[in-house]
Amino acid sequence: MNEWTEVLFTYDEVEAEIVKDLLESEGIQVVVQSLKISPYPVSIGRMGEMRLMVRNGDIEKAKDILSVMEKGKEKSDQ
User: Fold this and answer.
1) pLDDT, tens digit (0-9, with 9 covering 90-100), for 18-63
2) I need a labelling partner for 33 at 20 to 30 A (CA). Which of 17, 43, 55, 73 fits?
3) Is 62 exposed, middle or buried (0-12, 13-18, 19+ CB in 10 A)?
4) H or E stretch including 51?
């Protein structure tokens, strides 16, 4: 099964890389789809969209990891 599903949508390239590295460290293959045009570092509207995609078989594990990450972020913001 080679179907891919989006687990994160962001305009922040740093956030996308951190989440990608985290998921890959847990054995989840990640593909980043970006509409950015490399010579032009703009993030206006759709030109700044970044989507992290994982295989359908890894969706639940990826969502669990992202949920734990989000809870940790909320605690640190308090």
Assistant:
1) 999 999 999 999 999 987 666 666 556 666 788 999 999 999 999 9
2) 73
3) buried
4) strand 50-55
User: What pLDDT, on the 0 to 100 scale, is given for residue 76?
Assistant: 72
Stated as kind and residue range, the H or E segment containing 10 is strand 4-10
The contacts of residue 20 (CB under 8 Å, 6+ apart) are: 30, 32, 52
Note the pTM of the prediction, 2 decimals: 0.78
Determine the straight-line distance between the first and last CA of the chain, rounded to whole angstroms: 41
pLDDT at 69: 87
Count of residues making up the chain: 78
Domains of the chain in start order, with CATH, are 4-77 (3.30.70.1530)
C-alpha distances (whole Å) from 48 to each of 11, 18, 44, 59, 64 are 5, 17, 6, 24, 26
Give how far the C-alpha of residue 16 lies from the chain's centroid of Cα atoms, to the nearest Å. Answer: 5
